[in-house]
Design a protein that fits this description.
3-stranded antiparallel β-sheet; mainly beta; 2 helices; disordered N terminus; Phosphatidylethanolamine-binding Protein; 5-stranded antiparallel β-sheet; 2 domains; about 200 residues
Amino acid sequence: MSRPTRRAAFDVRRGTRRAPDVRRGSGRARLVPLGLVGLATVVAGCGHAAGAAGGTTPSTLTLSSSVAAPGAALPERYTCSGDNVAPPLSWSGPAAAGWALTLVDADAHGTVLRVATGIPAKEHATVAGQLPAGAVEGQRSDGGTGYYGPCPPQGSVRHYVFTVYGLTRPLTLSASVPAAEALRQITADSSETATLRVQFAR
């Protein structure tokens, strides 16, 4: 009996084709992961949603700010060099049972600068320096509570990532929950995410 022909996968890094990795006995081919190329694609996208067969589909959730475009510099007002208040954010996409917001320093091992939970499902925006009624500011990586804006070392530029999470159930975490544990719980209860990456230099 002749063996079925397998089509080669396209390697986006080299512009060449390569053979798929096939599990013996499965009868199904799966592609070898694309490594950093695949990771970059995930980070650059808006997030994910669970598929019917346990896979993922592109998220339609989006996050934006009226004061900074993606990749742009965050105005000084929203940093430690200014008033250090949270910038206004808005998001749109599928309905969720609630929302959570985070801010991390992408160049400092994911240091958490803000965790906010308990945002009602009906809300789709925040105003500068405020959260919707019912929302709670959580603990940062430094043990403090509430928003602490970008504050890179003098003479340097860093990148910061705001993330909104669409939750599968209402979730309100107290300020006593450490940032790492809060992120774990938020991630476990999220079905959609969207990010806004900005930068700031001092």
